[in-house]
Amino acid sequence: MRVLGIDPGSQTLGWGVVDGRGSKYALVEFGTIRSKAGEPFSRRLLSVYDGVAAVLERHSPDVLAVEDTFYSVNVNVALKLGQVRGTMLLLAEQWGLEIAEYAPRLVKKTVVGYGNAEKDQVGHMVKLLLGLDSPPKPHDAADALAIAICHFHHAVIDARRRDAATK
Q1: Catalytic machinery residues
Q2: For the structural domain made of 2-166, what CATH number should be given?
């Protein structure tokens, strides 16, 4: 299974591709897609859409795992992140990908063991879990890889539940 993890952002969107089966996985590639803050928001959404479409074309993932919405003090920020997430969900549907959504706290709890983990802790655990020399930078990419890793762990749990239910 190949998973594309997405950490949505309207200025910097983190992405990471992880390949594997069950709890054994390996890094394929990671990066960020940046858009210009001064551009109209619709153009920034198009930049994000085109950038992620290029990643999909290059890596052909089976699953798009994306961070679920979170609550923000700033309503405008939450709305913009929701629009970026919606763009990612639309893109995944257009490509026929399985979609998995994970709350930020669940991602941190799965990868670090603590739902309120700091960005540096997430990056360090991603480094350890993927056998990297250093934590992925910037943190948006590390978060995207954590989301992909989270999917592998929860996919294993979900498969076990399905198997138990059929027995």
Answers
A1: 7, 67, 140
A2: 3.30.420.10
Backbone angles phi, psi at 158, to 5 degrees: -65, -40
Kindly report, residue by residue over 130-153, the tens digit of the pLDDT. 999 999 999 999 999 999 999 999
Residue type, 61: P
Element housing 164 (H / E): helix 139-166
d(CA 81, CA 83): 5
CB of 84 closer than 8 Å to CB of 41? no
Q: In sequence order, what are the beta bridge partners of 64?
A: 4, 99
- Whether 65 and 100 have beta carbons less than 8 Å apart is answered as yes
> How far, in whole angstroms, is CA 47 from its chain's centroid?
17
| Domain range summary for the chain, segments of one domain joined by + | 2-166
> What's the predicted TM-score (pTM) here?
0.92
CA atoms within 13 A on the CB side of 89: 11
User: Maximum CA pair distance of the chain?
Assistant: 57
The encoded tokens of residue 53 equal 């479409």
Q: Is 31 exposed, middle or buried (0-12, 13-18, 19+ CB in 10 A)?
A: middle
